[in-house]
């Protein structure tokens, strides 16, 4: 099964909105750091429900926001959630971005990059479409140090790349980016039940859940095009 | 999709210019919305559909 | 009065340690984001007690850490707090950095940059000493949007530059940096007394104190050398 | 200061090479510590003191 089938199913049963709600806890902090200027064009790779572009437009931060996703159902949902004429969504794949060289000011991607069939190629595609000085804000919850994420692959029918913090930095540099920042952003908003409710369906111990969300949170790597 | 998107779109395969063929538009909005049509690569001729206002630029072999 | 007299006095009566304790609340979060590799050389501008370099060395993050300060008393204190042979402190001024071109991997500065007699010149000096891909992590609590910081100038005998977020970005770009990130880091650790203890000596209302620390916190601007 | 610092130091005024003149060292540490001495710019001749192990590279007019 590919990205299309897997995520079309997610979009069809409303999981796009569920992800948006959960991811927003950390995504908003990363988005707030982007050095956007009001004339900028931002692209969201693997946009899902498309919330990132809407948020950047609603705060007046950017001129245009585009979202790309490999699942036509996701893109259809995303489009239905806004009628801002400066927002657009397109179907497309991470391996073959349909944007011209130097056409984008900043690229955002949340919990999507590691689904790329060839992540090194995706990085060089991103570098190609960004103008000099443009940034790639790459946010993932699924990464090597976050041991609690390792089992996620079992539930998803698309092969996932599990890099460590250092592998992210190295791959960014190999693709010609300067690495400007790497950080783990804690999710301080997710509700963590009290001690006596553990084990829960998902978590054996409260410590594990605390570690997953409050400590490992979301790994953000920021690359800048020289 | 809005026509302004054409400024930055290209063929995902060879990154060449796309030509826009419009079948249906929606004029009710401030900026004309292209509802149905096709994007055709000026170089390799690959066609990408625009359906329900969304351009699908997945490479042909990933479309189904 | 100049930097030397002002901050020699601070160092002599132990205010270097007081600043370290307060600044650490937000500085540690910014330091944790730096994309340092184990062979890197990091420079702390206006190092005060020199804690940033010590922290980077203690975590094994960098190969060498240097601190520069315009106050000989500060530098003397900083040196006395460590005997790590890979840490060094030097006297020097922001306007005339005594480092060769491309010699530093990352520059850090906390609550010091705005004392520069000519901040534009200091930025171009920093750009000069950084290698391509090197970053300047510039952290300040004194900035335009933080209205609660405006009166600080009254207490300090060195002229301070009060830029807005946007002015920081513009000045970085003018000096030839790409801006990779801008963020305000909240101070979640400072003790904020309960409502009934206000007004305090320093704060008229609890809201003002909350806004100062939890909202405006520390402004971080990250520049990258192309 | 350690001698490794010389790799990256230069004259703050003209950014030229500095020459190290050592008066006193401390050999008790793993790497020799230069306690007293002078750094002299090979180009403009400006002298910068090393005192109590700390090189003072403030431009001369800011020293006092
Ligand atoms: N190779 C690929 N090309 C394009 N999109 C892809 C892709 N692999 C995965 N995706 C998309 O990436 C998304 C991952 S889910 C995350 C969605 C959103 N960014 C959020 O934060 O909620 C899905 O919508 C999926 O369709
Ligand atoms: N023009 C200048 N050149 C060099 N150092 C300067 C300077 N102006 C101010 N400073 C130094 O900058 C420091 C500011 S206080 C902050 C100290 C430390 N970074 C901390 O976070 O606690 C002082 O030690 C002062 O001596």
UniProtKB/TrEMBL annotation, chains A, C:
Record keyword Protein transport present: no
Keywords for this protein: Methyltransferase, Transferase
GO biological process, one term: methylation
Molecular function terms, GO-annotated: sterol 24-C-methyltransferase activity
CDD domains per the UniProt record, alphabetical: AdoMet_MTases
Residue ranges of domain Methyltransferase type in the record: 43-138
Superkingdom per UniProt: Archaea
Source organism (scientific name): Halocatena pleomorpha
Lineage: Archaea, Methanobacteriati, Methanobacteriota, Stenosarchaea group, Halobacteria
Protein name per the record: Class I SAM-dependent methyltransferase
TrEMBL record, chains B, D:
InterPro entries reported in the protein's UniProt record: Trm112-like
Pfam families xrefs: Trm112p
Source superkingdom: Archaea
Protein name: Trm112 family protein
């Amino acid at each position: 099964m590919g990205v299309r089938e897997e995520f079309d199913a997610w979009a069809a049963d409303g999981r796009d909105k569920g992800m948006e709600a959960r991811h927003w806890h950390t995504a908003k902090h990363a988005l707030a750091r982007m050095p956007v200027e009001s004339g900028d064009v931002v692209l969201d790779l693997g946009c899902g429900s498309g919330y990132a572009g809407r948020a950047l437009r609603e705060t007046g931060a950017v001129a245009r926001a585009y979202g790309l996703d490999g699942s036509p159902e996701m893109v259809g949902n995303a489009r239905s959630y806004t009628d801002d004429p400066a927002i657009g969504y397109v179907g497309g794949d991470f391996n073959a971005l349909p944007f011209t060289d130097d056409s984008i000011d900043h690229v955002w991607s949340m919990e999507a990059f590691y689904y790329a069939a060839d992540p090194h190629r995706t990085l060089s595609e991103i570098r190609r479409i960004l103008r000099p000085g443009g940034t790639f804000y790459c946010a993932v919850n699924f990464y090597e140090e976050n041991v609690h994420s390792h089992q996620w692959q079992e539930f998803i029918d698309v092969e996932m790349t599990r890099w460590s913090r250092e592998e992210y930095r190295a791959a960014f540099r190999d693709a010609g980016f300067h690495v400007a920042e790497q950080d783990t952003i804690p999710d301080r908003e997710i509700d963590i039940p009290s001690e006596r409710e553990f084990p829960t369906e998902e978590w054996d111990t409260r410590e594990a859940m605390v570690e997953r969300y409050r400590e490992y949170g979301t790994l953000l790597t920021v690359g800048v095009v020289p | 999709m809005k026509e302004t998107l054409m400024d930055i779109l290209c063929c995902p395969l060879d990154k060449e210019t796309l030509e826009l063929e419009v079948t249906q538009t929606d004029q009710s909005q401030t900026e004309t919305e292209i509802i149905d049509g096709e994007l055709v690569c000026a170089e390799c001729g690959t066609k990408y559909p625009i359906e329900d206002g969304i351009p699908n630029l997945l490479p042909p072999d990933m479309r189904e």
